[in-house]
Amino acid sequence: MKSPASFKKAAEWALPHWTRGQAGRETPQDLFRVLYSGWLLAFTLKVLGSAWDVSWHFKWLRDDLAPPHLLNSAGTALALALTVIHGYTGYGVDKAALRLIQWGTGIFLVAVPLDLINHRVNGLDITSWSPSHIMLYVGTFFMIAGVIRGWFMGAPPGRERTVVLGAFLAFFLENVHFPEQHQEYGILSIGAWDNHATYAEPILLQFAADQLGRPVDRTTMTGFALPVPDVLYPVYAVVAGLSVLVVARLLIGRFGAATLVAAAYVGVRMVAWPLLTFTGFPPSAVPFFLIVGGLLVDVAFLVRMPAARAVLGSIGATAAAYGALVAQSAIMGQVYGALKGQEGLLGAPPLATSSAVWAGFGLLAAWLAVEWIAAKRKPQPIQAPAAIATATT
């Protein structure tokens, strides 16, 4: 526990910075690091809470004050405090980053009471794909996007910048992939039912059965555990998940970036798996195929530039880049093979192989959009590294 002297020293350091200013103002390096360390802690609390929350809801009836909700709320409270600090002082963000953070936090805070009302009206709300839940993901999406931009624009070049950027992108991937956990937990819960080792408590099964108007049987279990079409899981994973990895590769700009971001997220899921199961909570299928997707993204970027240069003189830079993107999206079809292999070996939600066509077109459109935005918007740092260093002297 910190002593009163420590709190006094911290206050003496922080209070001089509490001045009103416009976004984009020069930020001392030590303050910049403190702010973004706060964001790392906030997102860590939210990830721990959300990871526990899904498993909790496959075992117990919902409770507004359940421990996972409280842990997630602690992260949200810290995120709200940081949003206020950025907005008032203007430190650590440019205008675009601040607007993203503010809009994201606002959407999330509006979604919370709407979700509570939804549960009061509809009861359990047995899908993570409900409108109120999607609002929570969208709010977090913009919030993390703003933080990524703020760190990307303001952090000085070096290993710390790259590592922290990768961490924020892993949080971004976790939020984007989060609704897919319903099917990842659901498929193993159905397997447990078939093996007469049900994870859910009887009161939860009965509640779900009453909502579906059925007895407690396998149909009820399937309606609870896999309430969305089978095509949703693979299409969303390829289009949304791999798009995040494309962004990671573009921002970090190094071979292996997409693979490491995917591996970081999957690693967190692997650590959470035994922690939850050993304490009596349901397990989930882990999306190992995302690591394969990350590697394919890295390889696609590796071969893209030579291919583009080879045809540059004949068809032009834009056509070369777009032609390379078509090839990249074709390579991404291999992710379906990895997912199919995981389904047979380690467990995964049902794979509707016919959806690969839609996943391919969706990924191509998303990839082109990401490349176009990156080409049109070339962000410049808020301040040069020298200015950051000078501000601390």
TrEMBL record:
Keywords: Membrane, Transmembrane, Transmembrane helix. The chain crosses the membrane at residues 31-49, 69-89, 96-114, 134-155, 162-178, 231-252, 259-279, 285-303, 310-331, 351-370. It comes from the Bacteria. This is Uncharacterized protein.
